[in-house]
Amino acid sequence: MSTQTALLKVMSDAARKAARGLNRDFGELAELQVSKKGAADFVSAADLKAEQTIFEALEKARPGYGFLGEERGLIEGTDKTHTWIVDPLDGTTNFLHAIPHFAINIALQREGVVVAAVTYNPITNELFWAEKGKGCFVNDKRLRVAARQRLDEAVFATGIPFLGHGQHAKFLKELHQISQRVAGVRRFGAAALDLAFVAAGRFDGFWERDLGAWDLAAGTLLVTEAGGKITTAEGGDDVLGSGSICAANLDLHPLLLERLKAAA
């Protein structure tokens, strides 16, 4: 059953509304490649504009909910049980370079638990969505994680620590442990879509560290509702708090975790 509830419709509409502006900006950005500073400023403006659009749409539909956004931080709501967690543009560097792989991420947390999620790639028009206990979908198609059970058949996604972010030496050890045992490792530059792709069975798993709650919140629900397993990269429960994640199907999750621990 792929009919969205009123809540999911509110979230999807907010994402699509913000996407209209991002699509316009993305088109212009492709023309801006010559300018060094101009393009970066342009992207931060696009980011802020998208977050403002989402904030206004969600606030109008559900007044009083709290809001945690990458750009504006935490805004306490009068309703202390609900918080939106939003990344208006995940994959900023891709966007900046006119690479059509980025997403809008919206999750709703109820009493500390993510209960609804939307991840939208405006370029491909793929809207990944899930509600707790009701399954995971892309547009109107039901999703399940991949059924592969062996590392040598699996393709994993990850993120490489970049300038001023994360522990590069640790990452290289992990990559060494994993890449020689699997069919492939991919680095696409948008954690939100990496998790959506795990939910869709395109990637068999994903691991990364030093992420924000807004990068992860929606994807954790997409993967679990598609039948996958999510922990921190150390095997713990506090994914959003730690910013580290290991996601895969039930067969591959322990194998991926084992390799990460071997690299520690």
Write structural notes for this entry.
The chain has helices spanning 6-29, 36-61, 92-96, 168-179, 191-199, 213-225, 239-242, 252-263; strands spanning 65-69, 73-75, 79-90, 103-110, 113-121, 126-131, 136-138, 141-142, 155-158, 184-186, 205-208, 229-231, 245-248. It is α+β, with helices and mostly antiparallel strands. The chain has 2 domains: 6-142, Fructose-1,6-Bisphosphatase, Chain A, domain 1, CATH 3.30.540.10; 151-263, D-Maltodextrin-Binding Protein, domain 2, CATH 3.40.190. Helix 1 runs antiparallel to helix 2 (36-61), helix 4 packs across helix 8 (252-263) and helix 5 packs parallel to helix 6. It is globular. The termini are far apart.
Task: Provide keyphrases for this structure.
single chain, 264 residues, alpha+beta, Fructose-1,6-Bisphosphatase, Chain A, domain 1, D-Maltodextrin-Binding Protein, domain 2, eight-stranded mixed β-sheet, five-stranded mixed β-sheet, 8 helices, 13 strands, globular
Sequence-ordered SSE layout with sheet pairings:
Blueprint lengths: L5 H24 L6 H26 L3 E5 L3 E3 L3 E12 L1 H5 L6 E8 L2 E9 L4 E6 L4 E3 L2 E2 L12 E4 L9 H12 L4 E3 L4 H9 L5 E4 L4 H13 L3 E3 L7 H4 L2 E4 L3 H12 L1
Helix pairs in contact: 1-2, 4-8, 5-6
